[in-house]
Amino acid sequence: MVVMNIPKGVQAQEFTLEQKSDSLSFLVLHTGNSHYRWALNFPVYQFCTGDVDGDGVVDALVGVIKTTRFDPQVARRLFIFKNYHGRIRALWMGSRLGGILEDFRFVEGKVYTLQSTTDGKYAVLRHQWRKFGLGADEFLVKGVSRQEALKVFDKLIIED
């Protein structure tokens, strides 16, 4: 059982994901008797929750497949949302994390990514929250086959 100390003035909350179709989902923030929805008008490949920025409040981590303003290629992205006064607000909407993002996990306060490179190699990286955005702070493996990287990545248990 995970017990979180909720900062004073913050209500209990829960993020959920409602998938309506292959390319439409809603991120839903439930607080007390109310809820707030944020439309995600693109495919979602991963969803989990956890306190990414260390403020004691659970955030939503959503893996989406889309272009961004800074990268016109359709690709897997990681978006992070938070509760801001009972409404969903973007905390971070990453264009890239270095390599080609394949998947992510949130474990013990850190974001772990499985990434590939243009030469067909793979890496598993650990990221932590910086003042604005995620920063890689350790390679668990790099320059390995997909199978080798998945052995490491699959051992990571997703928090929720």
Order of helices and strands: EEEEEEEEEEEH
Shape descriptor reads: globular
Per DSSP E runs of 2 or more residues, the count of β-strands stands at 11
**Count of helices?**
1
- Helix coverage percent: under 10%
How large a portion of the residues is in β-strands, by DSSP E? over 45%
Uncertain stretches: 1-7
Q: The biggest beta sheet, please?
A: 4 strands, antiparallel
Average pLDDT score: 90
Multimeric status of the protein: single chain
Report on this model:
The chain is built from 1 helix and 11 strands. The model is unreliable at 1-7 (pLDDT under 50). 5% of the residues lie in helices and 60% in strands. A hairpin with a 4-residue loop joins strand 10 (122-129) and strand 11 (134-144). The protein is mainly beta and 160 residues long.
Give the arrangement of secondary structure elements:
Layout: E1 13-21, E2 24-31, E3 34-40, E4 44-50, E5 59-68, E6 71-84, E7 87-93, E8 100-107, E9 110-116, E10 122-129, E11 134-144, H1 146-153
Antiparallel strand pairs: 1-2, 2-3, 4-5, 5-6, 6-7, 8-9, 9-10, 10-11
Summary, kept brief:
The protein has 160 residues and is mainly β.
Structural descriptors:
single chain; 160 residues; mainly beta; four-stranded antiparallel beta sheet; 1 helix; 11 strands; globular
